[in-house]
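Long-time lurker, first post. I've been practising inverse folding by hand and with some scripts of my own, and I keep getting stuck on stretches where the structure tokens seem ambiguous. Below is the full token string for one chain I'm working on. Before anyone asks, I'm not after the true native sequence, just a reasonable design that respects the backbone. If someone could post their per-position residues I'd love to compare against what I wrote down in my notebook.
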């Protein structure tokens, strides 16, 4: 059996100190031999220059870099320029997303949904880029129904997406059911589980409440019982996430995509436990 691919996500640093810390993190994570490092893109393109700078630096070091590209609030001319810049920099993979409008901005721009961005990338650049899109095992928080969310995913695939990365989750059944539903629609698109290592339960709980990712009650109660015992929170989090990864891989997941939060230790520890190093 082929070794499952891993990929690792960063966000673009805001300061020179953050740049240095990310370089050190990247050096540590490079020994995991990820298929690519992805870099997020702020709402409405608010981190465009920092995303591009981070991506170029990753590529210059010989790693495959996959910039996120969100289209809401953007124009076709603007996206065309970004695609040209990435092409010139040797980038060959893009994570294509709808994204969010910055707070207080009302104009959605010339794109409404991610499938329109995927279609535009294909029309402009053909097969130059491998296109990753998002998938939501627990359904997109703005979807009217699970069926609508599945149809939205299908439109992205039909527009030219190569593979998908999921929102993070802790309910294994949600991912397995989602993949079954996608396959039942006749789609064989690889769907890579998004994995969020747990650094701080309270930060994770706030973030999960905002993005719609469920933390199972048994996990919440266990984390809450540790209070401020950070060592126990870290140890329990490692056990939970490692077991989740093991189950995903045992059930045929094509790889794992780690939301690193620009830190190396937990992603490294999980991969070591999985014998992926």
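-- Answer (accepted) --
I ran through it position by position. Result:
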């Amino acid at each position: 059996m082929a070794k499952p691919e891993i990929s690792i996500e960063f966000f673009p640093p805001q300061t020179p100190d953050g740049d240095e810390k990310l370089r050190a993190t990247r050096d540590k994570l490079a020994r995991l031999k990820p298929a690519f490092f992805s870099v997020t893109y702020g709402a409405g393109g608010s981190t465009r220059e920092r995303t591009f700078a981070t991506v170029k630096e990753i590529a210059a070091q010989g790693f495959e870099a996959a910039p996120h590209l969100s289209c809401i609030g953007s124009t076709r001319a603007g996206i065309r320029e970004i695609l040209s810049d990435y092409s010139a920099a040797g980038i060959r993979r893009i994570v294509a997303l709808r994204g969010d409008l910055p707070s207080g901005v009302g104009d959605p721009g010339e794109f409404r949904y991610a499938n329109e961005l995927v279609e535009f990338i294909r029309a402009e650049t053909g097969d130059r880029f491998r296109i990753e899109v998002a998938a939501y095992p627990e359904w997109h928080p703005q979807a009217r129904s699970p069926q609508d969310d599945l149809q939205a995913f299908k439109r992205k695939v039909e527009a030219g997406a190569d593979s998908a990365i999921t929102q993070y989750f802790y309910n294994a059944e949600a991912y397995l059911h989602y993949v079954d539903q996608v396959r039942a629609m006749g789609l064989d698109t690889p769907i890579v589980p998004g994995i969020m290592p747990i650094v701080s339960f309270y930060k994770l709980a706030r973030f999960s409440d905002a993005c719609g990712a469920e933390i199972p009650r048994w996990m919440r109660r266990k984390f809450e019982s540790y209070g401020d015992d950070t060592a126990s929170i870290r140890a329990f989090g490692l056990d939970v996430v490692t077991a989740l990864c093991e189950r995903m891989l045992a059930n045929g997941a094509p790889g794992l995509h780690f939301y690193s939060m620009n830190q190396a230790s937990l992603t490294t520890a999980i991969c070591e436990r999985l014998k992926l190093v």
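A couple of notes from the structure itself: The chain has a mean pLDDT of 94. The longest helix spans residues 230-250. Happy to go over any region you disagree with.
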